[in-house]
Amino acid sequence: MKSKRLVFSFLTIMLGIVAGLAFGWLAMLPKAAQNADLERLRVDYQTDLVLMLAESFQKEPDSLYTLDELAKISGEDPLTFIGNSLVYAQKVGYPQEDVDLIINLLTQIDPQIYQNWKLQNGRN
Q: How confident is the model at residue 49 (pLDDT cuts 50, 70, 90)?
């Protein structure tokens, strides 16, 4: 008698797990965010994005592309944004190699391209 109750309890628990998984996977499909705004990211994620751009910039220095990508992450001035990310990276203890990459990005963006980019995007 006891073993029948144990088997029945086990089967009931398994049925509940299967039903829950089936409902979650088949009826309530998760949906990815559409057009998520990068400005809503936490500062640590934004700083990581700046670091990724700095790594990309080191391999292929394209100031215009980098400025466009920075504008997608933050509405503030791109150079100010890089500077703020640099300060955050230093404050939380990013490795010196990563800090150097961000410094390189900040100092190597072509000033003429930056000025033209600001004019073209209405940022004076």
A: very high
Which pair of tokens denotes residue 113? 């391209």
Are 82 and 70 in contact by the 8 Å Cβ rule? The answer is yes
pTM above 0.85, yes or no: no
Return the closest-CA partner of residue 83 out of 99, 56, 106, 51: 106
* Distance in angstroms (rounded) separating the CA atoms of residues 114 and 77: 10
CA 61, CA 69: separation in Å to the nearest integer?
13
What span, in angstroms and rounded, lies between the C-alpha atoms of 11 and 117? Answer: 65
Distance, in Å, from the CA atom of 122 to the CA atom of 95, rounded to the nearest integer, reads 36
In contact, 88 and 50? CB cutoff 8 Å: no
Nearest alpha carbon to residue 61 among 99, 97, 114, 98: 114
How far apart are the C-alpha atoms of 106 and 80, rounded to whole Å? Answer: 9
CA distance 10 to 90: 54
